[in-house]
Design brief:
By secondary structure, this protein is of the alpha/beta class. 31% of the residues lie in helices and 21% in strands. Helix 5 crosses helix 6. It starts with 22 loop residues before the first helix and ends in a 7-residue tail after the last helix. The site of adenosine-5'-monophosphate-propyl ester has 20 residues, from helix 11, strand 18 and strand 24.
Length: 668
């Protein structure tokens, strides 16, 4: 709650349900002893050094665990290693070459099972090809690919020779590509002619042709032939992937690299300014992603089939499709397409609207998936489609469910728990960021009694605290989330801009990293993430989080999805405006809107009753599924729209503007 020192973020929602892990789960869990928390906190550096030595193979042991010159950290100093060796060779050397590393499924239904031995050979060939194209240790390679195994191969091939990759999500436009290639000064672009989405090829190579015309550093383009679309190939510059690999030996010795060698850049779009090239390095990053992948998903690599349904273009794909799972010798699933595109052989018609919405559940059943990791926005979509779709499939192989990317509202958590997890799978709600590289705040499935909607607590070895506007620690209620000490997979900076790194993350609260999120802590010490602090609303001096109001809206039986923003209000400073998508079968009547407003007031208190509820067909989201509240604020204030380049579907805002302008609000 607020205190005299100045309001932070207030706390209205109460959740009483708790879900401890079952005795059976605890009995077989990778981690079941809560003693790990105090042990790690007593000496975090020693704790991380232990994980680094246990989980990774180093060419030589490191001398110094951490060299910390705030805000610049170097981990495991003096210990050389190679990431691709850790992800491939050592498993093959241990006799696991026949183990499937990736069960890949193309959207049309074309499967490929790629073993660790296959992957090692392909990575060796591509690493040699990159060298032949002039790529050297420290150079940057841009990867612009669909969700095909070559994306993983290209990333690992870079890591084998010490080149840094910069993966650009395949949905981005030529302009985004130009910004990212030029900022990184990439010399090679790895792409494909296209990929499959919703049953048709979407082309990538033409975007690369447009972009590269404005990218003077690029000398070569490597092209995977995914769709047979016959792209234009510029002689001398463009090369077919298959030709390059065929000409090379599959053996390429992994280079021992400094623990602080740049492993990759990944660009996050700031809301207005130019994208930031987040820098991740080698030893610390691999340690934390391997450890968290193992303990947070309770990994048993011998028998599990783990599936992270994100795109490799996001950090979730980097850390939890590629580096964490492969370092741990896991078998993973990778799927190219959308959740509502059936396999070609199972397709009943050409009408996308009529397509089946159970592709994910079909994949889980066929491969016997044991862990599923996805985003709340996807879960809410599955809820909208209805529980009948998963009910058609045997999902009993699932053991652990994960979520990431946004706060998960309790309603969606319960749906996931009931309809996907069969009320038996622990749910790990993992809070982290591109910048943190790996999980930071999350339950441990064999230890934590979870609460729907809470990311629970900081992992062993991680320091997280809430503070108020003055930087004073908040023990109960709402505040700003901060991280109190360095962690191995932390970003090492923003490419080319150390001052922006310091200003963005380390200047707001002295000595603390500020991720930009609000949170609250309850009486049991559980953390509840409340969204970006830029989104917090101020109603009559009360700082109310959008997350809590959205959760209360989605809790109404007629509401499928919701986004909330603050609109200027002469009386209250800001007033709450809720945009909602209705579940099928509900009419957008005046009565229903009033009922939804009252529902919020009942759940959270009268202060949180929205001034208006606007019923819309869709919400503006980024390509990774985050709601762009900034654009909704522009609409509600009648302003010109700000930067829309990261918007997934540009038509959505116009549709919303029409609704907002048609007077379908409920002003008091
Ligand atoms: O606001 C938090 C939200 O997503 C932000 C990080 O976004 P990005 O760098 O794109 O990385 C997404 C994948 C890690 C955070 O600052 N966020 C992420 N996970 C959660 C979350 N908010 C609440 N709960 C989460 N589990």
């Amino acid at each position: 709650m607020t205190d005299d020192s100045g309001a932070t973020i207030e706390d209205y929602y109460r959740e009483e349900r708790t879900f401890p892990p079952s005795p059976d789960f605890v009995a077989g869990a990778v981690l079941a002893d809560p003693g790990i928390y105090p042990r790690a906190d007593a000496d975090p550096e020693a704790f991380w050094a232990e994980q680094a030595r246990e989980l990774l193979t180093w060419d030589r042991d490191f001398d110094t665990t951490l060299d910390w010159q705030l805000p610049f950290g170097r981990w495991f100093v003096g210990g050389p290693l190679n990431v691709s060796y850790n992800c491939l060779d050592r498993h093959v050397e241990a006799g696991l070459g026949h183990r499937v590393a990736i069960h890949w499924e193309g959207e049309p239904g074309d499967p490929r099972a790629i073993t660790y031995a296959d992957l090692l050979a392909e990575v060796g060939g591509v690493a040699n090809a990159l060298k032949r194209l002039g790529v050297d240790t420290g150079d940057r390679v841009c990867i612009y690919l669909p969700m095909i195994p070559e994306a993983v191969v290209a990333m690992l091939a870079c890591s084998r020779i010490g080149a840094a990759h910069s993966v650009v999500f395949g949905g981005f436009s030529p302009d985004s590509l130009i910004d990212r290639i030029n900022d990184a000064g990439a010399t090679v672009v790895v792409t494909a002619d296209g990929g499959y989405r919703r049953g048709v090829p979407f082309l990538l190579k033409p975007n690369v042709d447009v972009a590269v015309a404005d990218c003077p550093t690029v000398t070569s383009v490597v092209v995977v032939d995914r769709c047979g679309s016959g792209p234009h190939m510029t002689p001398g510059r463009d090369h077919w992937w298959s030709d390059l690999v065929a000409a090379e030996s599959a053996e390429c010795a992994p280079l021992p690299l400094d623990s602080e060698q740049l492993l990759y850049l990944l660009y996050t779009s700031g809301t207005t300014a130019k994208p930031k090239g987040i820098m991740h390095t080698t030893g610390g990053y691999l340690t934390q992603v391997a450890w968290t992948h193992k303990v947070v998903f309770d990994l048993r690599p011998e028998t599990d089939v783990y599936w992270c349904a994100a795109d490799v273009g996001w950090v979730t794909g980097h850390s939890y499709i590629v580096y964490g799972p492969l370092c741990n010798g896991a078998t993973t699933v990778m799927y190219e397409g959308t959740p509502d595109t059936p396999r070609e052989d199972a397709r009943s018609g050409d009408d996308p609207a009529g397509w089946d919405k159970d592709r994910l559940w079909d994949i889980i059943e066929r491969y016997g998936v044991t862990q599923l990791y996805t985003a709340p926005t996807a879960i809410r979509t599955f809820m909208k489609w209805g529980a009948d779709w998963p009910a058609r499939h045997d999902l009993s192989s699932l053991r652990v469910l994960g979520t990431v990317g946004e706060p998960i509202n309790p309603e969606a958590w319960m749906w996931y728990h009931t309809h996907i997890g069969g009320e038996r799978c622990p749910i790990v709600d993992t809070w982290w960021q591109t910048e943190t590289g790996g999980h930071m705040i999350t339950p441990l499935p064999g230890i934590t009694a979870t609460k729907p909607g809470s990311a629970c607590r900081a992992l062993p070895g991680i320091g997280a605290e809430l503070v108020d506007d003055h930087g004073k620690v908040v023990e109960h209620g709402g505040g700003y989330l901060t991280l109190t000490r360095p962690w191995p997979s932390m970003l090492r900076g923003i490419w080319g801009d150390p001052e922006r790194y310091r200003d963005t993350y380390w200047s707001r609260f002295e000595g603390r990293y500020f991720p930009g999120d609000g949170a609250k802590v309850d009486d049991d010490g559980y953390m509840w993430l409340l969204g970006r602090v830029d989104d917090v609303m101020n109603v009559s001096g009360h700082r109310i989080s959008t997350t809590e109001v959205e959760s209360a809206l989605v809790d109404h039986p007629a509401v499928a999805e919701a986004a909330v923003v603050g609109a200027s209000d002469d009386t209250t400073g800001q007033a709450i405006v809720g945009y909602v998508i209705l579940r099928g079968g509900n009419d957008p009547t005046e009565e229903l809107r009033q009922d939804i407003r009252s529902h919020v007031a009942t759940k959270l208190g009268a202060i949180a009753r929205p001034r208006a509820v606007i019923i819309v067909p869709d919400l503006p989201k980024t390509r990774s599924g985050k709601i762009m509240r900034r654009l909704l604020r522009d609409v509600v204030e009648g302003r010109e729209l700000g930067d829309t380049t990261t918007l997934a579907d540009a038509n959505v805002v116009e549709a919303i503007r029409d609704r907002a302008g048609s007077g379908s609000t409920d002003e008091d």
